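Checked the freezer inventory, then went back to the computational side. Two predictions to log before the end of the day. The first one is the construct we discussed on Monday; recording sequence and C-alpha cells without edits.
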Amino acid sequence: MTPIRFTLNAAFMFSILGLSIHRTHFISALLCIEGMMLALFILLSFLSVSLQLPTIAPMPIIILAFSACEAGTGLALLVATSRTHGNDHLNNLNILQC
C-alpha cells in the first residue's frame, strides 16, 4: 500500500472514530462526516486516475455533489436545532418528540 493510500485510509478511519467518540456537538459530527466524504472523494479520484476506466471517471464528481448536498442539509439542520433548542448538543435532541 502506498503512503498516500495509507494516509487517506487513516483519515477515513479517524473520521469514523471521531464520529463515534466525540458526539457532544452537532457541528463536530458534521465535520467528521465531511472528513469521511473528503477522504472518499480523494480516494476515488486516485482510483479513477490510476485505472483510467471511463465508467469510474464521473464517480468523484458524484461524490462531491452528494457531499455538497449533505453539507447544506446538515447546516440547515444545525441552524434549525440551534433556534429551537438554543444549542447544538446532541444529547438534548430527541428524534421521537415533535
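The second is the one RB wanted added to the comparison set:
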Amino acid sequence: MGNCNLRMDNYDPTVSLNRQNFQFQYPIGKGGFGKVWKVIQKKSKSSYALKEMLKSRIIAKRSVNSVMNERRLLSILRHPFIVNMQYAFQDRENLYLVMDLMPGGDLRYHLSKVRKFSEEQTKFFVACLVIAFEYLHKSNIIHRDIKPENIVLDEAGYAHLTDFGIARVFQPENSNETSGTPGYMAPEVLCRQNHGFAVDYFALGVLAYEFMTGKRPYLGRDRKEIRDAILARQVQLKRSDIPEGWSLEAIDFINKLIQRKPQNRLGSLGIEEVKEHAWLRDVQWDKLFDKNIKIPFTPPDADNFDSRQVMNGWKDDITNNSRENSNQNLFNGYFYDMNLHSEGINLTTDSSKIEKKIKL
C-alpha cells in the first residue's frame, strides 16, 4: 500500500472535538485573550490546561499571526521540558488550546512569594531551561520570550518552557521581528537588529540575575527606558553583590550571559559552551533529562496561582464580532488532535524538517 498522509487542516472541529468534550474545573491563569482552565477530558479522564481565547480579542490586538504561529510550532514540537500541545480546536467565538497541565504554577508566581531563589534552586531551573534550549535551538527555533511567567512547574517541580507565540524558525534577516517583553529582551532585538539564538541566552542571564537579586539588571518604565539603560552601560555583578551562599562561578555565568554584544555572550558558540561552563559542570544532564534527580524546589500541594489575578476582567470594550465569515477564515487550520497527527519530530532532529513543515 502507498503512503497515506492524512491532512487535518480543513477538518471540521465541531465534528470530532469541541468544548463539551471537556469538564471545566476552574480557571488557573489568564492571558491577553482569555483564561486558562483546568479541565478533565471526559472520555479519557485525563487532566489538562485549556487556554480559551476570544477571537475578537485576538483580532483587535492584531495577534492572529501569533496564535496561529504557536499552533503550527507546537504541532511539530514535543519534548519533556516544554509544555506540549495535546489538542487545538475552535468554535464561532473562541480558540481552544489544550496543553499539558502544570500544577506547580509559574516562576513569576513563586518568585513573588519568595522574592529570591537560592543558588541551588536557580541552577536547577537554569539547567531545565538549557535542556529545552538545546532541543529548540537544534531544531532551529528561537523562543524569544523567556521570562518567569513562561516557565511553569510540573507536580514534581521540574521546569517547563511555554508560550511559543513569538517563537520563530531562525532566519538570517529578522530585524523586523521586535516583539518580546522589554525587561528580558536582548539589546539586538531592542535596537531592531538581526538576531539569533543568543537572545535566549541573554534572557536566561536576566532570569538568573533576577532569581539571585530579586530585580532585573536593566530597569525602566517602558521599552525606550530599558533600551536606554542597556545602551548607557554594561551591568556586571561584583564580588560585593554576591548574596550569602552563592559562588563566584554563578556570578561569572550570569555576567557572561548578560553581555550586551551577542558575539561576547556565553552561548554565542552554541549550547555546549553553556553546558560546559564551570557553574554547570556538576549537572547530571542524563539524569535531569530522565527527571531522576533530587529537586531543590518542590511546589506546594495547592493551587499555585493568584486567584485574584485570574478572576480579574479586562478594562477595554472589545466587541465580539468574530462571527463574520471573513474573520473565521483567519483561523483556518487551527485544529489539532495528538491522536490523529504523526508530525511530531524526534527529540534530536534535523532543523530542515521543521522549516519545511512550518509556513511562517
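For RB: The mean pLDDT is 88. The first helix runs from residue 13 to 16. Let me know if you want it refolded.
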